[in-house]
Write a structure and sequence with these properties.
ARM repeats: 224-260
Keywords: Repeat
Helix content: over 70%
Protein name: Armadillo repeat-containing protein 3
Oligomer: single chain
Largest sheet: none
Organism: Limosa lapponica baueri
Distance between the termini: 67 Å
InterPro entries: ARM-like (IPR011989), ARM-type_fold (IPR016024), Armadillo (IPR000225), Armadillo-Ser/Thr_Kinase (IPR052441)
Structural class: mainly alpha
Length: 260
């Protein structure tokens, strides 16, 4: 039915497969063996919005399976998924496209594909979505992407623009800080302080300042973050020093253990 020329049949077939795949990993494996992934991959770019939406929903659910993720990576599905993050697409498409990317981003090769195909910018834009699922999926994907920060910030494909795009929303969205705390993003931010790029150090220091509004994050950041920030005080770059001082002030404020 996924090969039908009729849009109504395609939409209903995808809807039925979504319900089937949602019932467990065994069903996802069954669909994989029947060749459903290849058909769905073609349909996520279908001109009919309902067909496209339903196909993306199935892939978003199926992508939690390891073997499905492997096939999606081989099919290079990331570019098609990224295109579905456009502002004009409906919220459900944003939700399941970002979910699929988040599932895939646990593997290094997929991270590289998402970065090099321009996936970070639209994911950051979705941090402002009013839908909590879209926001959570996007944050989880971004967090997974920046874990291998040394590759990404040494790569000519990415740069400071993307780094600041990831970090700056933390300063203005308290709900994002809560989710990032749950994802233990503090370690990643501390690693960014070691990147050989003054702009990245500034952005990371600003994000650490923002995360200090969460008391648990303040404790987690203080242990390893304070020594790193103190080292930045000897930087020749005034902006780096200013951002480091501000972060230190926020880390030590109302925190005796950090102050010591």
């Amino acid at each position: 039915m996924l090969s039908s020329p009729e849009e109504e049949i395609l939409a209903k077939a995808c809807d039925a497969l979504y319900k089937f795949a949602s019932k467990g990993d065994e069903n996802k494996v069954t669909l994989l063996g029947l060749g459903a992934v290849e058909h769905l991959f073609k349909l996520i770019s279908h001109e009919d919005p309902i067909v496209r939406r339903n196909a993306i929903m199935v892939l978003g659910i199926m992508a939690s399976n390891h073997d499905v993720k492997k096939l999606l990576r081989e099919l290079d599905v990331t570019n098609s998924l990224i295109s579905q993050l456009a502002p004009e697409e409906e919220v459900v498409i944003h939700e399941f496209a970002s979910l699929c990317l988040a599932h895939m981003a646990v593997e290094y090769t997929a991270k590289v594909q998402i970065f090099e195909q321009g996936g970070l910018e639209p994911l950051v834009r979705l941090l402002g979505s009013p839908d909590p699922d879209v926001k959570k999926n996007s944050l989880e994907c971004i967090y997974l992407l920046v874990q291998d920060c040394q590759y990404h910030f040494d790569s000519p494909v990415t740069g400071l623009y993307n780094v600041k795009d990831v970090i700056n929303p933390l300063q203005i969205m308290p709900e994002n800080r809560k989710i990032l705390r749950e994802e233990e993003v503090e370690k990643c931010l501390i690693n960014l302080l070691e990147v050989d790029n003054d702009g990245v150090k500034v952005a990371a220091s600003e994000a650490i300042s923002a995360m200090c509004e969460n008391s648990a994050s303040k404790r987690a950041l203080g242990v390893q973050g304070i020594p790193q920030l103190v080292q930045l005080l000897s930087s020749d770059n005034e902006e780096v020093k200013e951002a480091a001082v501000t972060a230190l002030v926020n880390l030590t404020a109302a925190s005796p253990s950090n102050a010591r």
